[in-house]
Amino acid sequence: MRTYCLEVTGDFACFTRPEMKVERVSYDVMTPSSARAVFESILWKPAIRWHVSKIEVLKPIRWVSIRRNEVGAVISVRNAQEAMNKGSGNLALNIEDERQQRAGLFLRDVAYRIHAHFELLPNADENNTMGKFLDMFERRAGKGQCINQPYLGCREFACNFRLVDTAQPQIDTIMETRDLGWMLYDMDYAKTATTPQPRFFRAQLKNGVLNVPSWNSEEMRG
User: Which of 98, 127, 199, 214 could link 222 by a cystine bridge, Cβ 3.0 to 4.6 Å?
Assistant: First the structure.
């Protein structure tokens, strides 16, 4: 099992707390699901699954409050189904009518080192080998290539990334220890793909390092 490390940086980040119903408020630190999404933006295949093991915080945790416009509605599923059945239909959404102004508490000037490995899933055929995917990821990450632009929680907060050689000296993590409380780990699609269940774990930042338990760990709740 080979573990890879990416350094990601960005001007802003928002890893939204699900308990906040109206305003967006970020967790103090990047969540495992957001870290997984960065790896998947570089290499995603139906035959593999990424597992995040550690998140290192490289810059002090700083906050910024921003008020911004958001769209407060989505296109109706029923209208979409009717348009598919009829072959035509109006699926437009007038953002002027649905615009909402919301405040958000975001992170600013962030930098992380995220560690993860992937596993081959049972549905992988003989053409999907571990070596094949290892080579693909290393080539893409080394050249800065990605399938889609990685982001930090929200798509408008794009981030830069680079593949880290952990054998070389790296900058130190922040020397901060705090209890981050219950943090969203990821969404569980095992029972149904339409109504996934959130899973949480008790997050502890120790000297700037958040160790992430495994998916089947007893620490998981949800």
Answer: 199
